[in-house]
Specification:
heterodimer; A: mainly alpha; 11 helices; globular; B: Rossmann fold; Alpha-Beta Plaits; 2 domains; six-stranded mixed β-sheet; four-stranded antiparallel β-sheet
């Protein structure tokens, strides 16, 4: 089980580090977000570095979402090209195939997230919080990415084409961020949107990340972490269910 | 080694495989022939545990494929019709990864990868990405991949599709060597009758999900007698040449404006057949005589010539 998961993860990592286009794209994307959106928006506000600190968790969430979508894409590509069947005829648990892909997805997202943090700090974001805060953010981020990787893999397990997959994924990528506290505080949003945002895993993650790194009110962190953990399990479960439905007919 | 009985598979309202039976003894090669959509892929997917049959039993090397798929997966090697090689890995990495997936240790992986690359003569290209390989090289690498775990049974779906004659012959040589030197049991699907005749001891023809003919190539071809006379003429739609009910006629059919008669001795009977057609007032436009082949068996049982297959 662990061996097969590791083998699949390793295969993706080797392909990833070899693919200059993918590496470059993943590197540039977060830099653009911080540099263009963060700095640009920040200029409209009186205290620039504060907005950047405020929205950096949002960019982290966006990066994780993008990573999850990319992970689903990678899985879909292997499925459509038939590579998946190579795993299927091997005496390995079906769950390990899924976990291998999810781990690879999270690893790639992490690579990006480190870049985002570095670029963000260089651009003037102020991050505090200490070890506990960082650890909480890290766990929240892993759960958040796993949950969405599960959803993306679940969609990819059924999609008939790459176009169809993109259609589905874009539905919940950017709008998900707009319906959260990623880019603006929710206090000024209408009530229905506040409720929508509260049911949004992106908000849970951003709450943890923001309160931990800004050392503000951390009272809801445990609740949010619990919700995120549930989300990760639900995402994995969904992916496994859809995956089994497709492969075991 | 491969025993399937009463196999059924239905997709929605389409009956993909109906009451299929198939037995392949240890060390022999079985060729599954059939037009596209006949149920070959569904059958091979069920035999290789990728698909669960609705009904029926599959026993592979003593293991029940439905109840104990992992045991079956451990003893089989499978290549797919559409190549599954990852273009972003080198040939050596592809084999190494496959061994890793099965939990082989590093030393064994290195050793086997080396042996297999030598076997399929890919040593020089081993460290190039498979995306740069030619079709023949990829087929060879696929063959090496499915041998990586030293399987006892190979399932090869269209092992030479899309290859030029030289590379086909090369793959055939490997397969024959595997059978003769390693006693490998194999089930192949193919469109190519020559491939089945050359490689297989047993042949099954499948059409619309049913096994329509099976036996040794000699048995199947034998039902046509020793010669096959083909005559093109302006046959009416319901033409019934009653004079063909003779003891020297093994078998006859009219398809696509061509009358084919399997006879005991072609050169002796051809004049009789021509006389019969003329007596019925038909204009003969073309005629020839060949040894019957599996292609004739295929045409007879499925009503489709192999030429049609190539197009689809």
């Amino acid at each position: 089980m662990i061996n097969a998961t590791y083998a699949i993860w390793l295969r993706h990592m080797r392909k990833f580090t070899r693919n200059r286009e993918e590496l470059g794209g993943l590197l540039i994307q977060p830099i653009l977000w911080v540099a263009l959106f963060g700095v640009g928006m920040g200029r409209m506000l009186p205290d620039q570095s504060n907005y950047l600190s405020f929205m950096l968790p949002g960019i982290l969430a966006l990066t994780a979402l993008g990573g999850a979508a990319g992970g689903g894409m990678m899985f879909l590509d292997e499925r459509l090209r038939g590579i998946l069947r190579e795993y299927m005829v091997a005496p390995i648990p079906r769950l390990s195939i899924l976990l291998g892909h999810m781990c690879a997805t999270v690893s790639k997202a992490f690579f990006q997230i480190i870049i985002v943090v570095i670029v963000g700090v260089l651009a003037g974001a102020q991050l505090g919080g200490g070890v506990v805060g960082w650890l909480a953010t890290l766990i929240a981020l892993i759960c958040f990415t796993l949950g969405f990787a599960g959803i993306a893999l679940g969609v990819a397990a059924r999609s008939k084409s790459i176009m169809g997959y993109h259609g589905m994924i874009f539905l919940f990528n950017l709008p998900l961020l707009f319906a959260s506290n990623a880019l603006y505080p929710l206090d000024s949003a209408p009530v229905w949107m506040q409720w929508l945002a509260k049911a949004n895993p992106a908000t849970w993650f951003i709450d943890v990340a923001r309160s931990s790194t800004q050392s503000t009110d951390m009272s809801t962190n445990l609740l949010n972490l619990g919700l995120l953990l549930g989300f990760a399990v639900a995402g994995t479960w969904l992916a496994l269910r859809r995956f089994n439905a497709v492969t075991a007919n | 080694m491969i025993d399937a009985q009463g196999l059924h598979k239905q997709f929605g309202t389409v009956q993909a495989v109906i009451d299929l039976e198939l037995h392949v003894p240890q060390g022999s090669v079985y060729a599954l022939l059939g037009p596209n959509g006949a149920g070959k892929s569904t059958t091979i997917n069920m035999l290789t545990t990728l698909l669960r049959p609705d009904r029926g039993t599959i026993v592979i090397a003593g293991h029940d494929a439905v109840r104990n798929p992992d045991a079956v997966r451990r003893v089989i090697g499978v290549t797919f019709q559409d190549l599954v090689l990852d273009r972003d890995l080198s040939g050596r990495e592809a084999l190494d990864f496959y061994g890793r997936l099965y939990g082989l240790d590093a030393a064994t992986r290195t050793q086997r990868t080396k042996e297999l690359l030598t076997l399929v003569e890919l040593n020089d290209a081993a460290d190039r990405l498979t995306g740069t390989y030619s079709g023949g090289m990829r087929r060879r690498l696929e063959l090496a991949r499915c041998l990586m775990m030293q399987p006892r049974i190979l399932f090869l779906d269209e092992p030479t599709q899309g290859l030029d004659p030289q590379h086909r012959a090369m793959i055939w040589d490997y397969l024959r060597m595997l059978q003769q030197q390693h006693g490998m049991t194999m089930l192949i699907t193919t469109h190519a009758m020559d491939e089945a005749e050359i490689l297989a001891q047993q042949v099954g023809i499948i059409d619309h999900g049913r096994m329509v003919a099976s036996g040794t190539p000699a048995e199947l071809i034998g039902q046509f007698g020793s010669d096959m006379v083909r005559i093109t003429a302006n046959y009416p739609a319901d033409y019934q040449p009653s004079w063909l009910q003779a003891e020297w006629v093994r078998n006859w059919a009219i398809q696509n404006g061509e009358l084919r008669v399997g006879v005991d001795h072609g050169s002796r009977r051809i004049a009789t057949i021509l006389d019969g057609l003329r007596a019925d007032g038909l204009q003969v436009s073309d005629m020839n005589m060949t040894r019957p082949s599996l292609g004739d068996v295929f045409l007879q049982t499925t009503g489709r010539a192999l030429r049609d297959e190539v197009k689809s």
